[in-house]
Amino acid sequence: MRLSRRFLLDSGVKATITLPLWMQSALARATPGQPPRLSRAAWREASARRLVVIDPGHGGHDPGAIGQGNIFEKSIVLSTAHDLRQALERGGYEVVMTRSRDIFIPLQTRVDIAERHKATLFLSIHANSVAHDPAVRGASIYTFSNHASDRLAARMAQSENSVESLSNPNFRGVSPQVAKILFALMAHSTKIESHLLQQKMVGALAPHVPLLPNPARHATFAVLQSSAIPSVLVETAFLSNPADEAELRTPAFRRRIALSMKSAVDAWFLARQHAVANL
Question: Which domain holds residue 259?
Answer without folding.
Answer: 49-160+168-200+215-277
